[in-house]
Amino acid sequence: MATSQLDNATLQEQDKHQLHPLQHPKTHADPLVIERGEGVYLYTADGRKILDGMAGLWNVDVGYGREELAQAAYDQMKRMAYTSNFAGMTNIPATQLANKLSGYAYPKLKTTFFTSGGSESNDSAFKIARYYWKRLGKPDKYKVIARQFGYHGITLAATFATGIERYHKMFGPPVPGFSHIVAPYSYRFAGELKSGETIGLAAARALEEAIQREGPDTVAAFIAEPVQGVGGVIIPPDDYFPRIREICDQYGVLFIADEVITGFGRTGELFGLNRYGVQPDILSFAKAITSGYQPLGGNQITDEIYDAILSAPDTDTWMHGYTYSGHATACAVALRNLELIENEKLVERSKQLGERLLAGLSSLKEFSVVGDVRGLGLICGVELVTDKESKTADVALAAKIMRSCLDRGLRTRNIGSTLAFSPPLTITEDEVDEIVRILGSALDSAG
Ligand SMILES: Cc1ncc(COP(=O)(O)O)c(C=O)c1O
Fold it and tell me: What is the whole-number distance in angstroms between the Cα of residue 334 and the centre of ligand 1?
């Protein structure tokens, strides 16, 4: 029986046996039961068609229903779906993918460690940093500085690297060693500006001050997303990351770029830091590496860090790895997905269509409740306020507009007072215009 013939209410009833991520009765009272997807559209079991303005969770970059990826998974599963990739064994897709990724995002990152997702990648990044400093005879360098509004995932360490209180509240006490500095959030900068200082440089200065406060001999790493997605689509000023790189170099602090959202084209560049001419020491990636068709993530590291692992005595072996590190089927799908991204020029497309989306959303600034519109490539945010002068965040309105968009056939995500947009990179011009039109109509009806 096709799923569409199942009764929506029955499916919703059966779903009561599932505990969902971030579940609260209020947000899961009437869940959408998604039956299938095609291109940028999702189709529900009760027959609705919804433009997925979030590409799943910022990740379905090549769009839904791609036979090429199904075929790649099928072929690899028949040959050998999975086997151990622990030291002493390897498999062909993982080898090929690591080779392909060598120097792919950033020239100095040539070696890849595979995980199954973004949180695992960030936990691994913290362990890589600690391992590295221990190998260099500096075991006291273990702390990680992160940022307010940063989101790094939900494993215990990633939770407390995350700079959003809601994720901490029910899971304390905090993991020791994580602290947070202000975000480079131009619309609502919470730091202090010295005279003549830009927001980008003031936000970077907060890192220098935090390193000095904690003690440079105790700080292992700084972690940052090039664009803070889950924290509200916060895009840094252009002078921020170059200064961050200088500060990390000056104090001997590793720079971890969390590119779980920004990797593989989302911002209109292949990777998020490419725009700023800056390379990290450790990279975390996930999501769009497979466009969500298989769970896969990973880290990339410099030769210096890799050498610390390769030159270790037995007693200091790199005792870290997941059952699914280098999963053969996931890696085969990733290889095919990267081909699609390249062949269809989706990075360039993200830049061009992103400009169209940003221009369209910016035209909605005529509404008195639209306080700020920001975007880079195909990741955009529209921040709602009670009035433009006071900039008071209107969280309730954002929730209302999100539901109203859904009723009109558009999926967005309300993050506090910001509505996020991150559609598949395969989106057409007409579909971009549809996003703007539906949001405009939802705002109109709320006024
Ligand atoms: C920047 C960033 N890092 C890490 C994660 C966590 O990834 P995952 O949910 O795959 O564990 C996310 C998820 O949205 C993310 O946006």
Answer: 17
Model confidence at 4: pLDDT above 70: no
CA 260 to centroid of ligand 1, rounded, Å = 6
What residues flank ligand 1, with Cβ below 6 Å?
A: 57, 117-119, 122, 151-153, 225, 229-230, 258, 260-261, 286
Q: How far is the CA of 210 from the centre of ligand 1 (A)?
A: 25
pLDDT band (50, 70, 90) for residue 1: very low
pTM: 0.97
Strand, coil or helix: what is 208? helix
When pLDDT is cut at 50, 70 and 90, the band that residue 3 belongs to is low
C-alpha distance across the termini of the chain, in Å: 44
Rounded to an integer, what distance in angstroms lies between the CA atom of residue 123 and that of residue 167? 16
What's the rounded mean pLDDT across residues 315-340? Answer: 98
- What CATH number does the domain containing 150 carry? 3.40.640.10
- Domain tally, the chain: 2
Specify whether 112 is located in the same domain as 231: yes
CATH of the domain at 355: 3.90.1150.10
Residues 350 and 330 both lie in one domain: no
- Report the pLDDT value the prediction gives residue 5, as an integer from 0 to 100: 56
Per the listing, tokens 């056939």 go with 409
One domain for residues 108 and 161 = yes
Which atom number of ligand 1 is nearest to the Cα of residue 287? 10
Q: Using the atom order of ligand 1, give the atom closest to the CA of residue 230.
A: 16
Do 10 and 31 lie in a common domain? Answer: yes
**Looking at residue 27, what is its pLDDT?**
87
CA angle 157, 159, 164 (to 5 degrees): 140
Instruction: Supply the range of the domain harboring residue 419.
Output: 3-62+345-446
Q: Which helix (H) or strand (E) holds 112?
A: strand 111-115
